[in-house]
Amino acid sequence: MAKGKQGTRSIKERDAATTQKIFDLVSRIARNSLAGKEPKLDIPTRTKSNTIWNKKRGILEMGDGVAERPLFDLKTAKQFMQTMLHSSTIKDLIEAQKTSSLRGVFYKAKHTVAGTRENTFDTQDESDPILEDLEVALGALREELHIFAENRGSMVGNITIVDKGDEIDCRRMGSGGYALPSIVEPDVIQFKKCEAKFVLHVEKGTVWNRFNEDRFWEKHNCILTHGAGQPPRGCRRLLQRLNQELKLPIICVLDCDPWGHYIYSVIKQGSISLAFESSRLAIPEAKFLGIRAKDFRECGLDDAVKIDLTENDIKRAKEIAAYPWFAGHRGWQKEIDAMLANGFKMEVESLITKDISYVSETYVPERLKRKDWLD
Amino acid sequence: MAAKEAATAEPRKKKTAPRVDAEAMAARQRDISVSEFFAKNRHLLGFDNPRKAMLTTIKEAVDNSLDACEEAGILPEIAVIVEDLEPNRPATAKSSRYRVTVIDNGPGIVRKQVENIFGRLLYGSKFHRLKMSRGQQGIGISAAGMYGLITTGRPMTIFTKPKAGQPTHHIELAMNTKTNRAEVTFDKEVKEFPPVRFRELSSGTRALAEQGGFLTSEEFPTGTSVSIELDGKYQRGRGSVDEFLELTAIANPHARIVFVPPSRVTEDEEPDVLAVAEAGAAAKAKVTTETNGVIVYPRGVQELPPETKEIQPHPKGIELGILLQMLKDYELAEKGGTLYNFLQERFCRVSASTASQMCEAIGVSSRAKAGDIEPPQAEKLYKVFQDAKLAPPPTDCLAPIGVRQLLAGMLKGVRAEFYSASSRSAEVYRGRPFQIEAAIAFGGELPGDEAARVIRFANRVPLLFQQSACSSFKAVTETPWKNYNLQHPRGGLPVGPLVIMIHMASVWVPFTSESKEAIADYDEIRKEMKLALMECGRKLGTYLRKRQKMRREGERRDVFERYIGEISKAINAITGDDPKKIYAALLEQARARTAVADQVLDEDGKVVKDEPMDEEGVIVVPDAIAPISGGLPPAVAAPPEAEPAKRTRGGKAPAGKGTKAAADAPARTARPAKVDAAREELRARAAKAAGRKAKPDGPGLF
């Protein structure tokens, strides 16, 4: 499975290897077809049932489960065709030495099936999972397939990096910050000079703006990031590299709701659909600073900040509590129970009711000082 | 009754003297002639209104003609001519005067019988025998003549030529309703037959006569022509002369019928005509030809229906009173005849040994005389009859239409996708053998959201009225159509693109009234009808289920084929493999995996490899099946925007066979040529199967 060690190989070697993998996969289909055997693809399954919790490493890993994707089955025929189309698209990208966004690949392969009014792909939502399927089926990483996602998330802080040869001083990023690219592998981004002692990762841009405006990273000598909700791979990979290579603790400030808890879970252990990438994405050491269920009382928040838990939220919270990586964690069991007992959820922004800068000047510094977090 | 009432009413009305006394009443009591009775009750005979009167007149004359031809072993050649005698009538006229003429090439009628046949009610050859024929009672044609006489005062005109090369009798006669006897007003011998003046009636008749297709003396060496002037109404649509003739043609493919409709159809009828045309046009698209208004229903088969035999009654089919009467009659006819002989001679299916067993069973010697049998013994005998194990009556007295001809008739009259037919073996009601046949047509161009159309026949005569009073209607409503994948509202007709045809053949069809519009609801008859319909329905159900599966498989294949082109292109781009080879290899796999979609089906859902007509009782017209939605197989080499090649699944029939018939067909309403060709092909096959001889001169080969 994919391991992040391509940096040592030359780009040319890497591309040749990927092209060969594609050729092997498709050639097998061609041989089978000509021999009158049913063409099928074997795609490692990216489902919860095929996800293994590696307790020792503290990350989620993909199991051995493989789903057949035969051509001659109504359920999979179209996906089969789409997989073949994307294989061809990726081969073209590699040969042309270009990279493309997920959306670009979608458009490149989207056309009307000959003789019909049917599109090969109707929406990008159909296209993206096929590319993830190819990643696992080929055992090639996204960047090896010359595909990137949109930039998402921002970073500021006491660090200087080099991005494709350009030196970027993250202390001088103004109000917008450094936009996190989707590919942050060492061959693209190198860390040059870092004084920061930790990384504060917040859930969304609005909260990040609060901290940035208050120059929190300057006062507390840290790096400040956000991932625009569920952080994309680029953001998670960068956090992991900061954690592993620079030994910076990752401290998360997320909402007190099942969604916030799940974001933390993904950052910490990895996600189910990208379990095959956990070893280069997951940060088992990541810490959850808040918002905590107890904060309503501890911080003396106003009733107005309460958002009732919906039935769906309750269901989701119970699911999360039952995840094996939370099930044996007393702190998390208590935290989720406390939230369910409260019957409401709270966003990070709810702290604004105390004071506009309460979160950056009081709440986070106090908690950091007390080391009051979950991990 | 009236006398009784008068008598009982009298004491209460004390002041009034008795209005009449018994003497006076006796003076008024007298015979009622049948003619008078029916003249007053003409609705009983089907002369309720001008339109129906016209139809009934034609129906009775055509029935007689067909019966006469068949009995004489002549292929029927019948002309039906309706002349408009008041073409200048106001548009609002409710009825008008017409002259209806029916000419046949039958055996003719000997001079001395003419008055009896046309001038007397309840006179005929068919009432007293047990033999399958259209007419039964000897009422029909004389009643029509009587109706004409009552409404117009004009006598019937008859031309009849009983022997080739000899003169024709020209007779005009009027019925005296008081005496139930005919009064001849004109009697002359003439040379010509058939009457030539009809050839000059219109441009249509002239054209047809020039082609030798109308009233040629060669085709009519003998025959009869009956003309009746009457007050009637000509209007197309349901229950019309046209429908009657069309259905008659379906049930009598051995007859050729030419119909010359009147020159004018009253205006107030137009909307109705249109409505009917819209509703029924699809279902009734004709395979007949029309020459300037003259309609020809061509002959489909060259063989007459098998000659039917007269039979003796079956022991199980008589009542005790009849048995007593029969014993009396036998004693009169055969002085001192034995019961043993009586049983064998006067009944069918009683063998010598059965007869002696029966004698034994009632405790008389086999030499006992029929005249000596006392009523108690007769009653015993009657019971013995009921318990005896007897073969059902012989069926050579019946001439069913037959499965193949039913299918052929349906195929010609109804544009559908699926046809099935079923012919039950003969059964017995009240000791009279009968046989039920049914056919159904489904899909195609039939309207899908209406109640099924039921067409009914008795002894090959279409029944057009009183559908819901008919046993067949009840049988249709009781058939479990839901089991055959059809919609079926409770107690009603099934709903869907369906035409149901039911035929009852019997030596005596039990009609509910003298006008012969509905079959009486005997349990035995209804049961047979249901069984016949269920057989057809099962075939349809199997077909529909199979078709569903075919459609699913077809859709599957379409999906696969749609993607195979894309896949082979992608493979080619990556590995350099020849896309055409990959495409061909994958296509082969796709076809093999969805082979069900290619199957042609028989009634049991078995796969038929070649000719669907080889299977009993079912015809499937593949081209009438609604096309399967979805894409078509793309050609690899073709650019994506190119029109996909036409699907060829339906066109399995070798092209050469069908084209001849298609080319012969006169210009018809525009339909895709391919469908027509395929249909003609099937029709030709059906005709071949039905008559072993397909006549290539008519568009429908009938």
Mind explaining what this structure looks like?
The complex is a heterodimer of chains A (375) and B (702). With 375 residues, chain A is α/β, with parallel strands linked by helices. Chain A folds into 2 domains: 143 residues, Winged helix-like DNA-binding domain superfamily/Winged helix DNA-binding domain (Arc Repressor Mutant, subunit A); 217 residues, 3-Layer(aba) Sandwich (Dna Topoisomerase Vi A Subunit, Chain: A, domain 2). Chain B has 702 residues and is of the alpha+beta class. Chain B folds into 5 domains: 29 residues, no CATH class; 261 residues, Histidine kinase-like ATPase, C-terminal domain (Heat Shock Protein 90, 2-Layer Sandwich), CATH 3.30.565.10; 73 residues, Helicase, Ruva Protein, domain 3; 137 residues, Ribosomal Protein S5, domain 2, CATH 3.30.230; 50 residues, no CATH class. In chain B, 37% of the residues lie in helices and 16% in strands. Chain B is built from 19 helices and 18 strands. Chain B has a 9-stranded mixed sheet. In chain B, strands 10, 11, 12, 13, 14, 15 and 18 form a 7-stranded mixed sheet that branches. In chain B, α15 crosses α16, α16 runs antiparallel to α17 and α18 packs across α19. The longest helix of chain B is centred in the C-terminal third of the chain and has 53 residues. Chains A and B meet through α1 and α2 of A and α16 and α17 of B.
Helix content of chain A: 40-55%
Tell me the total number of β-strands of chain B. Answer: 18
In terms of DSSP E residues, the strand content of chain A is: 15-25%
Figure out the total of helices of chain B: 19
Structural class of chain B: alpha+beta
* Quaternary organization: heterodimer
Q: Spans of chain A with pLDDT under 50 lasting ≥5 residues? A: 1-7
- Shape descriptor of chain A: globular
Number of domains of chain B: 5
Helix/strand structural class of chain A: alpha/beta
Biggest sheet of chain B, open or closed, and with what strands and sense? Answer: 9 strands, mixed
Strand line-up across the major sheet of chain B: 5-4-3-6-2-1-7-9-8
Largest interface: A-B, 33 and 34 residues
Radius of gyration of chain A: 23 Å
